[in-house]
Amino acid sequence: MHDVIIVGGSYAGLAAALQLVRARRRVLVIDAGIRRNRNAAHSHGFLGHDGRDPAEIAARGRAEVLAYPTAKLLETRAESVARTENGFGVTVTNGERFEGKRLILALGVVDELPNLQGVAERWGRSIFHCPYCHGYELGGGRIGVLATGASSVHQALMLPDWGEVTYFTRGFDPTSDERKDLDRRGVAIEPAAVAKIEDHATVRLEDGRAPSFAGLFLAPRIRIASSFVADLGLEMDEGPLGPFIRTDMTKETSMHDVFACGDAAMAAGSVALAVGDGVRAALGAHRSLMFR
Ligand SMILES: Cc1cc2nc3c(=O)[nH]c(=O)nc-3n(C[C@H](O)[C@H](O)[C@H](O)COP(=O)(O)OP(=O)(O)OC[C@H]3O[C@@H](n4cnc5c(N)ncnc54)[C@H](O)[C@@H]3O)c2cc1C
Predict the structure, then answer these.
(1) Which of 77, 137, 207, 254 is deepest in the core (most CB within 10 A)?
(2) pTM of the entire predicted model
């Protein structure tokens, strides 16, 4: 029996694990290895690691956790979770089942990219969603925003702090108030239909024009990275880009003894926020083991 099973062994899950193994608790981390930022060559904004390869940050974290004798890591996928008399049983892909007294969900989210030719292969390379993560590197150059829904205007309104912005409406026409806001921020509005993305960040329009940019931004819809979360029936909150797991101040979910952290448990995430959130979930789970 493990004290805590953590599903998801990236920034949030590993940060949680580190606190718990340092309290000599037996921790099993189950990780499928599909980090949200896996396409990006550089991670920005995480103090002490600014500009580092995100895979290297995760690998360092993993090595730090596994240096402790009570840490165990399984590279597989958790397929289902069931309550048991003393905690939880987690079944992984090969059918093996593991038991833990507490469960921490650190499983991240999946970005649902728009069905537009040229987007998927440029995601994290020249097409981004977070200006704080990748805006500075565009050097104040021209930025295109590809609308994906109502929240895209907000993204276009932020980006003038990072460069000269063109907003491709893609059928999501701004309201007259939003047009005034975009105008006030100096954002150009381009209503022509977008055919595809070419080269580094060139937007090929249906009318034949093809403006080029230092980088492009879009706001994808997000969904929790594992379907078993829905089976657990946890209460959710609705963020601007999609649902995330509701937690209290200790990061406990609506189900007793189940904690959640990282992108799966907040409206908008980053590596730094995921690490801090993982620490909070670990402290919540540990307190519940000590005092409940
Ligand atoms: C293109 C891109 C670039 C980004 N760049 C930056 C940046 O420069 N700086 C920054 O701070 N943030 C950046 N981010 C955001 C950052 O990637 C996330 O905020 C961060 O990865 C969240 O960490 P997490 O641990 O919550 O989730 P993730 O890092 O997504 O990790 C979740 C882990 O859980 C695993 N998992 C999921 N379900 C299961 C299951 N059922 N069983 C086992 N394992 C499972 C996944 O495989 C994965 O390994 C970027 C995001 C994107 C999309």
Answers:
(1) 77
(2) 0.95
- Residue with the smallest CA separation from ligand 1 atom 37 is 107
How distant, in Å, are the alpha carbons of 1, 9, 179, 267, 289 from that of 58? 26, 9, 41, 22, 27
Q: Which atom of ligand 1 is nearest to the CA of 270?
A: 19
Distance 10 CA to ligand 1 centre (A): 7
Ligand 1 site residues (CB inside 6 A) read 7-13, 30-37, 39-40, 43-46, 77-78, 106-108, 111, 123-124, 128, 130, 133, 225-226, 262-263, 269-272, 274
Distance CA 65, CA 77 (A): 19
Q: Which two tokens stand for residue 81?
A: 């979770």
Mean pLDDT of 126-133: 96
196 CA to centre of own chain:
25
E strand spans, the chain: 2-7, 27-30, 71-74, 78-83, 88-92, 97-105, 109-112, 127-128, 142-146, 164-168, 188-190, 194-198, 202-205, 215-217, 221-224, 236-238, 243-245, 258-260
Query: Ligand 1 centre and the CA of 35: distance in Å?
Result: 4
d(CA 280, ligand 1 centre) in Å: 17
pLDDT band of residue 162 (cuts 50, 70, 90) is very high
Q: Bridge-partner residues for 221, per DSSP? A: 112
CA angle 115, 118, 123 (to 5 degrees): 85
Q: At 257, is the secondary structure helix, strand, or coil?
A: coil
User: Residue ranges of the alpha helices (H) in 22-148?
Assistant: 54-66, 131-134
Distance 12 CA to ligand 1 centre (A): 8
Q: DSSP 3-state assignment of 128? A: strand
